[in-house]
Write a structure and sequence with these properties.
CATH class of the largest domain: Alpha Beta
Distance between the termini: 11 Å
Largest sheet: 8 strands, antiparallel
Number of helices: 19
CATH topology of the largest domain: Glutamine Phosphoribosylpyrophosphate, subunit 1, domain 1
Strand content: 15-25%
Strand order of the largest sheet: 3-2-4-1-10-9-11-15
Helix content: 25-40%
CATH architecture of the largest domain: 4-Layer Sandwich
Shape: globular
Number of domains: 3
Bound molecules: fructose -6-phosphate
Mean pLDDT: 94
Length: 607
């Protein structure tokens, strides 16, 4: 989703801004731009498509120079993909970049047009530019103009602002969109994500909602929205951080699928010791853990599928009712938080706007017992709003389609469930040791599932040529079917849908024909006979079924792929691997942009 990099330095800032934009590419975008200020004149370049297009345009300009500037990758919300709609947007006195959505832009735009402002783009962002102009015209103060933006706009924003007559300052302000500020001795930078600037900064600061930052070469001053100076503690950048490459694979997603056994070792590391699980982050909250009577899990997309699987675990293992609510719905429903509710947010990025808003809402209402975020990005917005965070420690996930973050979320959820059970004394000895023994086997089991996934290769041609595929499962595997269908559609663009298998005959069976393959996730457990009856119903109607199971069955039109034996509790994690593999191989055959599928963004920072 949109990314900002901006700053001021002693030297030409262009290479730093370009480098930052490249590091933001993984978030997803469709155009990019850069605006520099030199000798009180703006230089502006924008391109659609990849950042390398922008880089090429810059290289053709003989005098593209400035010690301060703004750069942006745009993921279209208001207005098509075009140079006009790409950021930065410039007016007579201001240049701005915006991440977020101005919800009341139509009303503001109408008023500004009446005042004579001529809009050049279809974006909501352009209203910010003319609010700044209008306010500056009467007050002569950039600070006051920014205060007016805060006051007049509704919605979300992270903004970088420069003023034509001041080559010493870059301004920034944010609300409900991520923004991080970084500084060194002679340079100050801002970005949507610390990845973009961490290689060239020593310390970072997180800007709070409606706080204003004034970036100068020698330092940054923070203000409240009413102009009081704020003291902020900097966080030192760890210079030994991993540099993420593709590890010899062609795609990040491929690497991320194959590294899962190692990733899970990292997730479990120092947390499973001898015959117990230690999540040190929970130590301060033992009293609350004992009191938990209800659980609510809020999340989006793949993280929501991990939440749905966790619901079965909470209810089956701990006997605690668990509600799973999609974050974008949570905000607009009547909140009926029950007594002693544990509120969990699941998010790879920790920046998903819907999930963050739901968390902020529950914090405002303050009716929950404890909030826990399960997250892959330390220091991101969702952990900062939570009482405590359990990191998934999966390493950077670059492929837009989530894989290792999903499996590591599930591993963390199992450890959390175990820890709650221990505090509440609700796990018997047998269940205790079953969970621990199973988790210890997880990396090796994942390896076995990766090896077994190659048996799917012969089915990939069938999928490549289909326009629609269905996924079915029961209980946890119904939720996993949703994940399988999402993986396939997002990277291969093949329409896919998922069903709880028992629901098929209530309408969806009408979709079955010889051209619509059905992928059945059917581990051999107490529900196997039930799902196999559903498979028979499909086969009887000439449907083609690919069955993933540890039981092998021979039947006409049934492709039965034998999966490794594995403890039942690990199966939702392990069976996700062949589903990821299937989606990846199909997309590869179709030649899609696997790591950055069309229309999608890695970090969904708008509602
Ligand atoms: C799909 C995918 C998305 C994310 C969703 C939530 O492969 O990655 O559905 O799961 O956008 O993102 P996070 O987990 O960062 O909150």
């Amino acid at each position: 989703m949109c990314g900002i990099v901006a700053g001021i330095s002693e030297k030409n800032i262009t290479p730093i801004l370009l480098e930052g934009l490249k590091k933001l590419e993984y978030r997803g975008y469709d155009s990019s731009g850069i605006s520099l200020l030199f000798d009180n004149e703006f230089s502006l370049l924008k391109e659609t498509g990849k950042v390398k297009n922008l880089e090429l345009s810059i290289s053709k300009e003989c005098s593209f120079f400035g010690k301060l500037g703004l750069a942006h990758t745009r993921w279209s919300t208001h207005g098509k993909v075009s140079k006009e709609n790409a950021h930065p947007h410039n007016s007579k006195n201001f240049s701005i970049v915006h991440n977020g959505i101005i919800e009341n832009y139509l009303g503001l735009k109408g008023d500004l047009i009446k005042k004579g402002y001529d809009f050049k783009s279809e974006t909501d962002s352009e209203v910010i530019l003319y609010i700044l102009e209008e306010s500056y015209k009467s007050s002569g103060s950039v600070f006051k103009a920014i205060q007016d933006v805060i006051q007049k706009t509704k919605g979300s924003y992270a903004l970088g602002i420069i003023h034509r007559k001041n080559e010493e300052v870059v301004w920034s302000v944010k609300k409900d969109s991520p923004l991080v500020i970084g500084k060194t001795k002679d340079m100050s930078l801002m970005a949507s994500d610390k990845n973009a600037i961490d290689s060239c900064t020593e310390e970072i600061y997180y800007l709070g909602d409606n706080e204003i930052a004034k970036l100068e070469k020698k330092g940054v001053t923070f203000f409240t929205s009413d102009g009081k100076i704020l003291y902020k503690e900097g966080i030192k950048i760890d210079k030994n951080q991993e540099i993420v490459g593709k590890g010899g694979f062609e795609y990040f997603m491929e690497k991320e699928i194959y590294e899962q056994p190692e990733v899970i070792k990292n997730t479990l590391k120092n947390r499973i010791k001898k015959e117990s699980i230690y999540l040190d982050e929970l130590n301060r909250y033992k009293r609350e853990l004992k009191k938990i009577e209800n659980v609510e899990i809020i999340s989006c997309g793949t993280s929501n599928h991990a939440a749905l699987i966790s619901k079965y675990w909470f209810e089956n293992i701990l006997n605690i009712p668990c509600e799973v609510i999609i974050a974008s719905e949570y905000r607009y429903k009547t909140l009926l938080t029950r007594k002693n509710t544990l509120f969990i947010t699941l998010s790879q990025s920790g920046e998903t706007a819907d999930t963050l808003s739901a968390l902020k809402l529950i914090n405002e209402k303050n009716k929950h017992l404890l909030s826990i975020s399960v997250c892959n990005v330390e220091g991101s917005s969702i952990p900062r709003e939570s009482d405590l965070t359990l990191l998934t420690n999966a390493g950077k996930e670059i492929g837009v389609a989530s894989t290792k973050a999903f499996t590591s979320q599930l591993a963390v959820m199992l450890m959390l469930i175990y820890s709650i059970g221990r505090e509440k004394r609700s796990l018997d000895k047998e269940m205790n040791s079953y969970i621990i023994k199973s988790l210890k086997k997880l990396p090796i089991k994942m390896e076995e599932f990766l090896n077994a996934s190659t048996s799917l290769d012969s089915f990939i041609k069938t999928l490549e040529n289909t326009t629609s595929a269905l996924y079915i499962g029961r209980s946890e595997y119904g939720a996993l079917a949703m994940e399988g269908a999402l993986k396939l559609k997002e990277i291969s663009y093949i329409h896919s849908e998922s069903f709880y298998a028992g629901e098929l005959k209530h309408g969806s069976l009408a979709l079955i024909d010889e051209n619509t393959p059905v992928i059945a996730i059917a581990p051999f457990n107490e529900l196997f006979d039930k799902i196999y009856s559903n498979i028979e119903e499909i086969l009887a109607r000439n449907g083609k079924v690919l069955m993933l199971s540890d039981k092998h069955i021979i039947s006409e039109n049934l492709i039965s792929i034998k999966m490794p034996e594995c403890p039942e509790i690990l199966k939702p994690i392990c069976y996700s691997i062949p589903l990821q593999y299937l989606a990846f191989k199909t997309a590869k055959l179709k030649g899609t942009d696997i790591d950055k599928p069309r229309n999608l963004a890695k970090s969904v920072t708008v509602e």
